[in-house]
Amino acid sequence: MIYEKEKRYIVPFDDVPSPRAEMPEISVDERRGNFDEVETGFPESVAVTEAKRCLSCRRCLGCALCWAECGVEAIDFDMPDEVLELEFDDVIITRGQDNAFSAIDPAWGYGTYADVITDLQFERMLSPTGPTDGRVVSPLDGEIPARLAVIQTEPEGDENHLLSSVVLGVNESILALDRTEGLKITLISPLSPDFKERFLADAEKIAGLSMVEGKAGSVQRSGEGDPLTVTYSHEGADHTETFDLVVLLTKPVLSSETQALSKKLDKPVQ
């Protein structure tokens, strides 16, 4: 029987997998004259069973909010499950929101220094709904950086990745420069022929951004409170510069689940 309570439709179920465990409590006599915790907590075996019970909920919890919004009987709660076979002309598998990337060499300082972040983390920082409300700050001390380096972590091989990652680095740099007065950004990466032909001339016109065609070697910090030191090669010579924040351009990779689906459907990921 479905009934209404406090403007919500309540759908009772009689097939709950198992009843809720009762929390053990000390007796009334044991509570007198002290501040001992009344509820003693579940023993491990009961806690495990309760956790499994919570994970065994069905497709509907009986809250009937869908009825409250759409009207009574808009949803058929008694509709049986069925398997549908649908035909399509093509299937496209995408990366989705895995946000996974190739392993980062420890030489880049990621995971060691709080002020070394990935391009994905930087993108989140630049978002108006991000953790810093779109402001560029160092995760190390919350200070606004004066010098920022964007460096390529996958300088070899994949020309498509090299193009897309540098374009991302330039776009993120534009946002950061627009929101941070006096900021100077150096982008260090090999540049693909396609990028040089299509985008380099415009990138070099961006005030505050320096494009360095080279390969970064490492990111180090001499001592506590010191800026980050980036070593890189450019035009056959080694260079060293200091920065307040370093952003790593990463290479996305597919999750194991996406790879398995692609193999199962015999479709490449696009």
Ordered list of secondary-structure elements with their pairings:
Elements (H helix, E strand, L loop, with lengths): L2 E3 L2 E3 L17 H4 L12 H11 L10 H6 L45 E3 H8 L20 E6 L6 H21 L4 E5 L4 H11 L5 E4 L1 E8 L6 E7 L2 E7 L1 E5 L6 H10 L5
Parallel strand pairs: 3-10, 4-5, 4-10, 5-6
Antiparallel strand pairs: 1-2, 7-8, 8-9
Overall description:
The chain is α/β, with parallel strands linked by helices and 270 residues long. The protein folds into 3 domains: 3-70, no CATH class; 83-98 and 254-270, no CATH class; 106-249, FAD/NAD(P)-binding domain, CATH 3.50.50. It is 26% helix and 19% strand. The chain contains 7 helices and 10 strands. The strands form 3 sheets. It has a 5-stranded parallel β-sheet with strand order 3-10-4-5-6. A 3-stranded antiparallel β-sheet has the order 7-8-9, with no helix packed on it. It has a two-stranded antiparallel ribbon with strand order 1-2. β4, α5 (159-179) and β5 form a beta-alpha-beta unit. α5 (159-179) runs parallel beside α6 (193-203). The longest helix has 21 residues, at 159-179. The radius of gyration is 28 Å and the shape is extended. Residues 1-9 have low confidence and may be disordered.
